[in-house]
Write a structure and sequence with these properties.
heterodimer; A: 295 residues; alpha+beta; five-stranded mixed β-sheet; 6 strands; 52% helix; B: 163 residues; mainly alpha; 7 helices; 71% helix
Chain lengths: 295, 163
């Protein structure tokens, strides 16, 4: 028993600790070590004579297409009432000019922003049925420079939001270091000093030249912005901060977060800079999705 | 990264970390079957991602812990008064030791959840502080601090049987 502690360079346990360490967990069952069949990586088996089959497939497709073209199957009459243009025209005729303009703009945006391209629809959307406002969640990470650049636009965009939309910033947490950065954010939130710290943290937590790397240095930062050591300790170790971290953990998981910055609208749509085509475009897509949710 | 590559990497992580994954889940669910199910569910969930996370082990640990928390809230099966806790190996224990174990599990409930989990993982699950830090996405010093404080409180609460 002592060997287990000594080998790790840990302090020698007292009798109580030794007695506790004699308690063992139930070992997992035999099935535990088996990876499910559907998760087993499948070997890619090269097909025999792939070029031959590919050529035959292409030829067959061409023959079929020619045969269909020559037949009457393709020659059908749509008729006046099957085209969507006529339906839209009819509905447009009953709208006033402002509504028509809005409809045309939204139709234009529908064509401009495509699901699966500019944004994604979550496979497991969050249940927001209890919410009376449209929630926009934004995930960030302080050392992430795109997040830093996006923050400026995001702050300005936040000013334009109506009372029926809330913006909820959530730190990404994938590692102990990220958890520390998240804890700094929530500590500042508890202390009510996010306006003095949030933007500065993007500089202080830079990847290559991290000036704040532990609790002591974080406390010094808060002292610089007028928070005493005692106030910092209380907030850093407070239940509110720790609960916020747990909540952020759950939200990171619920949204299946994989990169930052990332936006999620109404718990159903995800937007990334790559998909949207840029930071400004992310906000345009967000506006579009918010409007869709509220209409 | 292709799906096949993700599955291969996932299988490798599972092979290297299966004990830590199991202990991490068990420290929350307090039930062997539930812990195994949680790890399996987490593996399946991660295997279906369209894009592999940057840090696959950390992502998997976080997924396991979140699923375990959800599972324990749903089932609420753990009771401190249980004579046969479904996560402790009591086969070789004498009657006196079983009484001690029951007391320990009962008093464990009075600790903060992070202290409970760290004590279970460290003392019963035999994980190192570094391993627990990886599992919980914290630094080893924080984990060690939780452990020490939890141990002190547990000792204060425990009434050892007189011999």
């Amino acid at each position: 028993m002592n060997q287990r502690f000594e080998n790790r360079g840990e302090n020698s346990p007292d009798e109580f600790e030794k007695r506790l360490s004699r308690i063992s967990l139930l070992a997992p069952s035999e099935r535990y070590g088996e990876i499910p069949q559907r998760m087993q990586p499948k070997e890619i088996v090269p097909r025999v004579f792939p070029r031959l089959w590919l050529t035959a497939g292409v030829l067959a497709s061409v023959v079929l297409l020619l045969a269909l073209t020559a037949s009457d199957i393709l020659n059908f009459d749509v008729g006046e009432n099957f085209g969507t243009e006529s339906l839209v025209a009819e509905s447009n005729d009953t709208l006033d000019p402002i509504q028509q303009s809005s409809l045309q703009a939204s139709q234009s945006m529908e064509q401009q922003f495509v699901a699966g391209n500019h944004y994604v629809e979550l496979q497991n959307p969050l249940d927001m049925s209890d919410s009376t406002v449209t929630e926009v969640a934004v995930f960030f990470w302080y050392p992430c420079w795109p997040c830093s650049e996006f923050e400026e636009l995001l702050t300005a965009w936040e000013e334009t939001l109506g009372a029926d939309v809330t913006l909820h910033r959530i730190p990404a947490i994938w590692s102990p270091a990220m958890r520390f950065h998240a804890r700094a954010y929530y500590t500042a939130q508890v202390l009510g000093v996010l306006d003095r710290s949030h933007r500065r943290f993007y500089t202080e937590f830079k990847k290559d030249s991290e000036t704040i790397s532990d609790e002591e240095e974080l406390m010094q930062f808060f002292q610089e912005i007028g928070i005493s050591a005692a106030e910092f300790q209380r907030a850093y170790n407070s239940a509110a901060t720790l609960e916020s971290l747990e909540q952020a953990d759950a939200e990171n998981f619920a949204y299946q977060l994989q990169s930052t910055p990332a936006m999620f609208v109404a718990g159903r749509y995800g937007i990334s800079p790559g998909g949207a085509g840029g930071f400004r475009q992310m906000l345009e897509v967000a506006n579009f999705l918010i409007e869709r949710e509220q209409n | 990264m292709s799906s096949t590559k993700l599955l291969s990497q996932l299988a490798q992580v599972f092979e290297e970390k299966q004990k830590q994954l199991y202990v991490a889940a068990l420290s929350i669910t307090r039930d062997r079957a539930a812990a195994e199910d949680v790890v399996l569910d987490a593996m399946l969930a991660v295997s279906e991602l369209q894009q592999a996370p940057d840090d696959l082990p950390a992502y998997l640990f976080r997924t396991v812990r979140n699923k375990a928390i959800y599972c324990s809230k749903q089932s609420r099966r753990f009771t401190a008064d249980s004579e046969h806790p479904s996560f402790i190996d009591s086969r070789s224990q004498a009657a006196e030791e079983q009484i001690f174990v029951s007391q320990v599990l009962k008093q464990l409930q009075r600790l903060e959840s992070n202290q409970q989990q760290v004590l279970i993982m460290k003392l019963f699950g035999d994980l190192t502080f570094e391993e627990i830090a990886e599992v919980t996405a914290n630094n080893p010093n924080t984990v060690a601090s939780w452990y020490r404080r939890g141990l002190v409180k547990l000792k204060e609460h425990i009434h050892e049987p007189t011999i």
